[in-house]
Design brief:
alpha/beta, Rossmann fold, five-stranded parallel sheet, four-stranded antiparallel sheet, 8 helices, globular, binds adenosine-5'-triphosphate
């Protein structure tokens, strides 16, 4: 359901140098697969996921999602495809702080072909154990509960693919295990494939299919320094300006 071929993405550094961050010859996901990519900080994982989700445009290459060529679409076409086929779980959850838990899930449905379905949104929030929190705001929830809202929002549109970018980076070990189990179970229930990236061993250990991102992505060595150095514990993700 996901076929990536000859995908490249480069950024220009503030000094004007062009650095290739993603260079993936071939990557496939079967329907319903659950795959974790292991990769060090700065190795291009988030960039790769943003390309697959159509948030970024590649310089070259092909991304076919459930039969549709993502790279042939303009920005609004990619937004529609993403809403229809992809659920995205971010490390920092990206919940809308001015909206309640229920509204966050409903807004996530508003771009999808199925449209807003209040009963489905409530059912998904019930599924992740938050039916008693529908009218709370994200700041009133624990980190683990916010993560569960993000899971409910990601699966509400019945996606074909759920993408999770370091989704447990802000959770302790016990909550990491339960959050991952919830993601895996809910993806299985709605028939979605799950593609997760992480450099956390406790996270990767919960997947049978763990692939080494450095073997998939032939990025420029130049882009590994200084950004490619492993992050220190607690240090925020680093990001350069395009
Ligand atoms: N918009 C951008 N402009 C310039 N360089 C960028 C941009 N986005 C990412 N990069 C660079 O691309 C490289 C890969 O970044 P990316 O965020 O994809 O890595 P990552 O593997 O997700 O790292 P982390 O584990 O820290 O999240 C880094 O060197 C980063 O500085
Ligand atoms: Mg990242």
């Amino acid at each position: 359901m996901l076929i990536v071929r000859n995908l490249t993405k480069s950024f220009t550094t503030p000094e004007g140098a062009k650095v290739r961050v993603v260079d993936v010859a071939e990557f496939h996901l079967e329907p319903g697969a659950q795959v974790a990519l292991r990769g060090e900080s700065g190795s291009g994982k988030t960039t790769f996921l943003h390309l697959i989700a159509g948030i970024l445009r590649p310089n070259s290459g092909s991304i076919v999602i459930d039969g549709t060529e993502m790279t042939a679409l303009g920005e609004s076409g990619r937004d529609v495809l993403r809403a229809a086929k992809i659920g995205y779980i971010f490390q920092t959850f990206n919940l809308l702080q001015g909206h309640t838990v229920l509204e966050n899930v409903l807004l996530g449905m508003s771009f999808a072909p199925g449209g807003v379905d209040g009963a489905r949104a409530r059912a998904m929030l019930d599924r992740v154990g938050l039916s008693h929190r529908l009218r709370h705001f994200p700041r009133e929830l624990s980190t683990g509960q916010q993560q569960r809202v993000a899971v409910a929002r990601a699966i509400a549109n019945r996606p074909k693919l759920v993408i999770a970018d370091e989704p447990t980076g802000n959770l302790d070990n016990r909550h990491t295990a339960s959050a991952l189990d919830l993601m895996k179970e809910t993806c299985r229930e709605c028939g979605a494939a799950l593609l997760l990236v992480s450099h956390d061993d406790a996270t990767l250990a919960r997947f049978e299919d763990v692939r080494d991102f450095s073997a998939i992505n032939r990025m420029d060595n130049a882009s590994r320094t200084p950004w490619g150095q492993p992050r220190k514990p607690g240090e925020a993700p680093r990001r350069a300006v395009e």
